[in-house]
Amino acid sequence: MITTKSGIVETPVFMPVCTKGVPKTLTTNNLEDMGFDMVVANAYHLFLKPGHKEVRQYGGLHSFMSWENSILSDSGGFQVYSLSPSAKISDAGVEFKSFIDGSVNFISPELSIEIQEHLGSDIMMIFDDCPKPDSEYPRVLESINRTKDWALRSKKSKKTESMLFGIIQGGVYEDLRKTSLEHMLEIEFDGYAIGGLGLGEGQDRTYEITDLICSMLPEDKPRYSMGIGKPEDIIRSVELGVDVFDCVVPTRNARNGTLYTKNGKINIKNREFYMSDRLIDEEDPNHPCSDYSLGYIRHLYTSKEMTALSLMTMNNLYFYKQLIESIKKSIKDGKFIEFKKAFLERYENETN
Description:
about 350 residues; alpha/beta; TIM Barrel; 2 domains; 3-stranded antiparallel β-sheet; globular
């Protein structure tokens, strides 16, 4: 259980991505109806638009996006790398051009914490130096040392009761991962995140690094695997000891025509679903799309109707919520290994 100022979050937990304060194509009411109790927003994006000071004047992000449950805010370190290729990184912080209007901005660890505190986040992340996934050893070594310095500055500048998580970097280098982990444990945080995974290192390597880090982290602090969120990755990461997940996969793939089901993935563009009267899940009367056939959803999607994106996103997030609930039940019943085997056999066979 993670107790935040907005409530208690039972883990494992999957957080829908609300980068700019909204789940793409849905509303926060949709998330509440599906039973989600924590989302992730992004300090970098909200700093650029509408501005963290403006959000604070509105009463904070909870009020702004009409969400009473917990919010975890990403500090923006990853976005600096992914959205600002010409960013200038120094020990002081990061200078970058806005991808919105080209204006020059600067974020330091202190400002990152200020942004997140103005948002009113329940869980904040330290500002970290996230190197490119193909970075050589010297650059990754530099990044973990800088991340340690920024972690210290992030913690020192924290003024509110919000929780603060450290981030473990180190790329694919096991010795650097161990060193970065030791840095974070030395500083002490409310939880610990694994950063820089799922960026092309390969699934097996992802699991190896996750296993290594989880084996060294304290059991009484939550572990957050940042950006890891394919269904099979969630199940295998839970087995390794991860508690918290977020990923754009369910929402982004919905917009690209992919539906997640307990029997594998469906590409709604396939001809077989033309005028099909099948439902996404024939056995679940509580499914949010239970009133709409695959044929109708395909018609909306191929007609470029925005409602199709809403319905498909709702399906995918509902699938993720049901997956997490099934994992939690299997753990409580002492049957996680059996559940994992059965789910992966059915899901991967149908997907492949």
